[in-house]
Amino acid sequence: MSDELQPVADTEPIKDPGLAEHQFRPQDVDEAQAKRTERQIAWMFRVAGLLFLGFCFAYFLIDIDDTFLGWSAQNFAFGMTLGGGLLLVGVGIIQWAKKLMGDHEMVEMRHPSASSDEDRVAVMKDINAGIEESGFGRRPMIRNSLLGSMALLGLPAVVLLRDLGPLPHGQRETVWKKGMRLVNDVTGTPIKPSDMQVGQLVNGQPAVVYETDADGEPVLHGTELLQVKSKASIIVVRMRPEDVTPSKGRENWGVDGILCFSKICTHVGCPISLWEQQTHHLLCPCHQSTFDLGDNGKVIFGPAHRPLPQLPLGVDDEGYLIAMSDFPEIVAPSYPELARDQKKLDNKS
To answer: What are the TM regions of this chain, as residue ranges (predicted)?
Structure first.
């Protein structure tokens, strides 16, 4: 026998590939059933659209601190509305495909990877035929309700963009005010000048963060507490008085070399406390902005363009460090309108 491969005598597909007889669905033979199924699917898409709208309402109407059965009420509403809407869209599409789109069995021969021009034309013809069989053009009720629910699905995405954080406008004031004590951020204890050594840095907060009401409950809690801490967090450092070079009008802003600055970097708002006590430099860990605390928090390196806001200090009758006012500068990351907003704040003060 020759070692050469012999040509295949018959390359045509077999006449009977073993497929069972096609079973028609109720929707294929009963137009009333098909219409009923179409209405059911359309209602799924419509309800999904309403749930997507409900997500937006829940975002604005339910307080973030509200609870429901021990869970976050807002998160529960988010899950029920967005999850329920997506579930209905998915179920509706599956029902559409299984009950209304064409379901004829097809048998195709294997063919080379590179298709001929005739095959490509045939594929496009089949694709167009599939689109026609899907009823996308012939069933406007389903098509329009699906497109409507998909359009409404974009609303939760737009709403969630707001959750990236509040706009910088309105961040001009913090809870600091004259007479409020500085407390240690870890223990909540007030700070005395005698508690600090030269070269030391202490992370601090306003005393209101740790205050409680008559029932012993915190005055601030939840989101309100986090918002206060995000704007009012401070660092307190002590240097030798001769190493401090205060600018005009800030000669009395320190107490025996103790100065207080915002903990929020003026670049993009990272919390900073990397302290070089020998050089009096404070470094931001995010983008290496460096501030000279001995020279009014001036920027000496990095992408930040504004000095760290400084809090004027004093001592109360019991010898504890207190704020003499709020920050005179805006405590916030830099943003385009900052210069304008700072000018308004200066005119107000």
So the answer is: 43-62, 74-97
